Amino acid sequence: MSDTALRAPFPERAGAALKDTFLQEALTIATTKFIDLRRESFAGFPQGEALRDQARAIKEATLQRLDAHLERLADNVERLGGVVHWATTADEAREIVLRLARERGVRMAVKSKSMATEEIDLNEALEHAGVTAVETDLGEYIIQLAHEKPSHIIAPAIHKTKGQVAELFSRELRGEFPADPEVLTAVARKALREKFLQADMGITGANFAVADTGTVVLVTNEGNGRMVTSLPRIHVALMGIEKVIPSMSDLVVFLAILARSATGQKLSSYTTLVRGPRRAGELEGPQEFHLILLDNGRSRQIASTLREALYCLRCGACLNVCPVYRQIGGHAYGHTYPGPIGILLTAMLKGNESVRELAHASSLCGACKDVCPVRIDIPRMLVELREHLDREKIAPWSERVVFRAFRRLLMSETAFRVSARAGRLLQKPFVRQGRLRGLPLLLGRWTRTRDLPPVASRTFRERWKDLR
Amino acid sequence: MITCLGDVFFPEVGVAMVRLLRRLGVELDFPEAQTCCGMPLFNSGYHHDAAEVAARTVKLFERAEHVVVPSGSCAWMVKAEYPGLLKHDPALRAAAESLARRTRELSQFIVEVLGVTRIESSFAGKVTYHDSCHLLRGLGESSSPRALLRGVPGVELVELPGADQCCGFGGSFSVRLPEVSSAILEKKLGNVEATGARCLVACDAGCLMQMGGGLTRRASRVKAVHLAQVLAGEVEA
Questions:
Q1: DSSP assignment string, A155-182
Q2: Last residue of some domain: B54, B84, B112?
Q3: Exposed end of chain B (fewer CB within 10 Å): N or C?
Q4: Cβ separation of B171 and A364 shorter than 8 Å?
Q5: Which of A388, A450, A459 sits opposite B214 (nearest CB)?
Q6: Which bin fits B96, alpha (ψ -120 to 50), beta or left (φ > 0)?
């Protein structure tokens, strides 16, 4: 999506997505597959429900003593020979990476898929500083070649059909490649191998960081993450501060439900545990290990409405089941994190003003809450967020006036009766075969695609007199 | 409790419910001062306003032994949100908790309180059932409406593919983002028509307004009806 498209208001972006037939095809196929895989996976895993409760409880308890867990994590990483950096803002986090690259003469960095680095726009900053950053996750590689942003938390190129990927590869990597995922993967693999060998720095995110042991955990399916953490001489891991968990036994709980929720796998193909840089006598691993702990608005939310969003494991399950996401895809949301959880995360990271429209991009159907591995009550928090929009006067004044008037109408039976009667009169010109069509103003938004039942010739309360 | 959409747009549903429940031996009253459960205000973030509506509604139903609502979302609103909205006034909160305990969505009331699953009705034919989000995920109910439909001699229930997926209504969502709401609806109606059912049954005024509005617009031969109308045998041809 172009920059101009991103600056358009949300309803326009959503409208454009609905008209994109490639996007519609890609979204339907991929989200349906994810939904089915997740359902099957949990169906054969009766202990899953209890593990979800347990995982939620761990997140809850950890957040209550987040500072202590982070300090313990930092101590242990340093004991293993790593360096820990604290970044309050996205700017600070970028600056830390750029300084490391500058001081150590880094010319090329290979990256493993990381939403945190997307959150701080790290690739752009690196390019600007003259460091070539290469995404090595296949999906990320595809969108990097296409100069796009991820449209899904775990499947960044979910919006592309295999035909589009074949075209892109043929153009960018110079060749004639068929729309065959196996062939395309082999093409990417060959192109990426060279980069791995040239890179001076490997950059990753972190799915978890274990405080007790100083272990950074990466959950991937392609194994590129493992090479990113072991081949280049410097490994930099960037993680949001909420990713810390107390112990290895906690990790087991999360691993048991994360991949099942995301892709329906029992475990992902690779679970990489990183403990500091290469030690004396070890054959592989980086000479330096840096862990950047990113706040960027998170700690502010620990005691607030959005607190539960900090439990998020970034599995993407809520995106797959969301009727809105399934229609418009991730780009239309216009921020790093799409989907229902993305609305909450955007509010958290960028402030409530930034979700003035997005806060309403949900029918509150609750499908997200049902599949969330840590049972984040997303619909409930969206409603709370909307409450803040009213209280902070971010919601448009016209809307606030309309809802206040509606309240007055509901507070009086007379007003309610009179309004029904008024509606009955006003609707007359619009009744066609017993249905309302072509209504003006706000109601026209309804009748463009749907009929509306007319106000009944006698409402229930009017008919009750005969029923009594 | 006949909430706003039911009162103004679908009085026939309320009438069907009254006739049905009377046939099942229930004595009914309708506090005429009632208007709406307040969910439109609540969902859009106007919680203070919703609390005023909730307080008013709680008082109106103080003396009812059971409160039956032919709309899953309104029942959910009363049961799940009223006590929280009125938490600052202990007396009101207690009254809200009492109302929450006494309130049932229609299908739940018939199955759980009356213990009935087999109802004779003049309605016959193939139907399919849509799970309304608040009834399904809010109140955890998917079996009672299906049991009641299967219990009608002459009714054949065919499962709707993706029955548990939202119809795209979502209250003000349907006019805030009409294109997205309609796109979700189109998928739903495609599935509905593929079942070959003659009626699409649901237990929520909002979903019926959305799906019914889409069906008549596409001149479908499928009719959106409320469970009460099927059970009371009051589906117009």
A1: -TTTTS-HHHHHHHHHHHTTS---S-HH
A2: B112
A3: C
A4: yes
A5: A450
A6: alpha
pTM: 0.95
Query: Is residue B77 domain-shared with residue B136, that is, in the same domain?
Result: no
Residue A429 and residue A419: Cα distance in Å, rounded?
Answer: 17
Average per-residue pLDDT for chain B: 97
Sign of CA dihedral B149, B155, B156, B162: negative
Nearest CA distance, B108 vs chain A (angstrom): 20
Give which of B187, B65, B203, B209 is closest to B142, Cα–Cα.
B203
- Interfacial B residues in 64-83 facing A (CB < 8 Å): none
**Strand, helix or coil at A217?**
strand
Contact between A247 and A211 under an 8 Å Cβ cutoff? The reply is yes
Chain centroid to CA A427: 43
Three-state DSSP class for residue B68:
strand
Tell me how far apart the alpha carbons of residues A291 and A304 are, in angstroms, rounded to a whole number: 27
ipTM above 0.90, yes or no: yes
The C-alpha atoms of residue A409 and residue B25 are separated, in whole angstroms, by 35
Rounded-to-10 torsion of CA A85, A87, A88, A93: 170
Nearest to A383 among B43, B166, B212 (CB): B43
Does B29 reside within a domain? yes
Domain that holds residue B201: 118-232
What's the rounded Cα separation, in Å, for the pair A245 and A214? 10
- Answer yes or no: are the C-beta atoms of B170 and A364 closer than 8 Å: yes
Number of domains in chain B: 2
Is A365 within 8 Å of B49 when comparing Cβ atoms?
no
Minimal-distance CA residue of chain B relative to A325: B180
Residue A255 near residue A330 (C-beta atoms within 8 A): no
The two structure tokens encoding residue A442: 């706000």
Size of interface A-B (CB pairs under 8 A): 188
Among residues B64, B86, B112, which one ends one of the domains? B112
SS3 assignment, position A113:
coil
Those residues of chain A that have pLDDT short of 70 are 1-6
- Residue closest to A34 by CA, chosen among A241, A229, A263: A263
Residues B62 and B122 in one domain: no
Cβ pair A62, A244 in contact under 8 A: yes
- How many angstroms separate the CA of residue B218 from the nearest CA in chain A? 8
Cα atoms found within 13 Å of the Cα of residue A102, Cβ hemisphere only: 10
Which of the residues A364, A394, A409, A442 would you substitute to probe the B interface, choosing the one with the greatest number of B C-beta atoms within 10 Å? A364
Residue A2: its pLDDT value, please?
A: 43
How confident is the model over A2-16, as pLDDT tens digits? Answer: 444 557 899 999 999
Nearest to B170 among A364, A416, A456 (CB): A364
A262-296 tens-digit pLDDT: 999 999 999 999 999 999 999 889 999 999 999 99
